[in-house]
TrEMBL record:
Chain spans, region Disordered: 1-23
Domain of life: Bacteria
Transmembrane segments: 32-51
Keywords assigned by UniProt, alphabetized: Membrane, Transmembrane, Transmembrane helix
Protein species of origin: Subtercola boreus
Full protein name: DUF4352 domain-containing protein
Length: 207
């Protein structure tokens, strides 16, 4: 006589066999509920802290905090005195503009900056700076232009005037910043001046 497994019959496994083979998911979830809850909380928190630190680092190296200087005023920044000494705007249609070979429909804006180094770095050098010209519209940035130092125009600085910030100049000096802008540019202009070690602060010298 053959012996019959009580958990099976001729038609296959019984309900009791199926139940015994099912994974005990509820028990596993109960045992690991705390760990799962910790993961649910900690993963978003960790990602949030990581991205927050990345944004802080990003903005700390971006010029996002302007120090506004009114026309005719000077200011101390990066251990140096800065002031706009003069501004000239030359149209492409003027004799001087044609002589400088300015592109049609453009103006050349020349900004003279007075620099007075005071606190030199450990190498005995004065600050290096980068400049842009910004146009404002109702207090907001409308357009900006980089230096025309390498533009194909025929315009030279006066003798004794630098073409930009010069780190080896430790006594007061002047430099000219030149910008080729569309002729429809308004007079609401400011010189954006950055010194790398001072970011996110920068100077906004109103012309």
């Amino acid at each position: 006589m053959s012996r019959t497994d009580p958990s099976t019959d001729a038609d296959g496994p019984t309900d009791s066999t199926i139940d015994s083979r099912r994974p005990k998911r509820r028990g596993w979830l109960r045992r690991n509920a705390f760990a799962l809850a910790a993961i649910i909380v900690l993963v978003p928190l960790t990602l949030g802290i990581t991205f927050s630190n990345e944004w802080v680092n990003y903005y700390s190296t971006r010029p996002s905090q302007p120090v506004v200087v009114d026309p005719g005023q000077s200011t101390d920044f990066a251990g140096t005195g800065w002031a706009i000494e003069g501004t000239e705007r030359i149209s492409s249609t003027s004799p001087e503009g044609r002589e400088a070979d300015l592109p049609g429909g453009s103006d050349l804006v020349v900004v003279t900056v007075s620099v007075t180094p005071r606190d030199l770095d450990e190498k005995g050098e004065s600050p290096f700076c980068e400049v842009r010209l910004e146009e404002r519209d109702r207090g907001e940035l409308a357009r900006s232009w980089g230096s025309a130092e390498f533009e194909p125009i025929d315009y030279d600085e006066p003798e004794g005037v630098e073409s930009g910030c010069t780190t080896d100049r430790t006594a007061p000096y002047k430099f000219e910043a030149q910008f080729v802008v569309p002729s429809d540019t308004t007079e609401a202009l400011a010189l954006h001046l950055e010194v790398g070690d001072e970011l996110p602060k920068y100077l906004s010298l109103t012309l």
